[in-house]
Amino acid sequence: MRRVFAEKNAIVSLLALPKTASEALLLLLYGYQELKASEYPVTGVRLMQAAKQSGLHQLDRVDRAMTPNAAYVLTAGSHRGRRYQLNNQGIAKAQEIMNAIFK
């Protein structure tokens, strides 16, 4: 876990980026689930901060970037109060992405 995730200023970030931004967001959600369970599900604002800290500066909105992998994510709330978490298939997909990074 520590080879993929770092925690700085209470924000989980990625040390290695996958191929796409949507995969990176899945990994960030997985990181919050495993490392910061008290802050899980993750707000869109916190997820955006984590993405920027990870080096994904091209993102303008989390929900748009998440679209290709939306089947793996559960959302609740609306507007700035929206929260994201992985479903069971999303957890498996995040683990698969993590394994692919270190092949």
Description:
The protein is of the alpha+beta class. It has a single domain, classed as Winged helix-like DNA-binding domain superfamily/Winged helix DNA-binding domain (Arc Repressor Mutant, subunit A). Helix content is 44%, strand content 17%. It contains 4 helices and 5 strands; from the N terminus they run ββαβααββα. The chain has a 3-stranded antiparallel sheet with strand order 3-5-4. The protein has a two-stranded antiparallel sheet with strand order 1-2. A hairpin with a 2-residue loop joins β1 (5-8) and β2 (11-14). The protein is globular, with a radius of gyration of 12 Å.
Detail the topology: elements first, then pairings.
Layout: E1 5-8, E2 11-14, H1 21-35, E3 42-43, H2 44-54, H3 62-66, E4 73-76, E5 83-86, H4 88-101
Antiparallel strand pairs: 1-2, 3-5, 4-5
How is this structure best summarized?
With 103 residues, this protein is of the alpha+beta class. It is 44% helix and 17% strand.
**The CATH topology:** Arc Repressor Mutant, subunit A
Spatial shape: globular
**Count of individual helical segments:** 4
Distance between the termini: 15 Å
Helicity level: 40-55%
Biggest beta-sheet profile: 3 strands, antiparallel
Tally of discrete structural domains: 1
Strand coverage percent: 15-25%
Briefly note the structural class of the backbone.
alpha+beta
Assembly category? single chain
- What are the segments in which pLDDT stays under 50 over at least 5 consecutive residues? none
Please identify which CATH superfamily we are dealing with.
Winged helix-like DNA-binding domain superfamily/Winged helix DNA-binding domain
What is the annotated CATH architecture?
Orthogonal Bundle
Mean pLDDT: 93
Number of strands: 5
CATH class: Mainly Alpha
Strand order of the largest sheet: 3-5-4
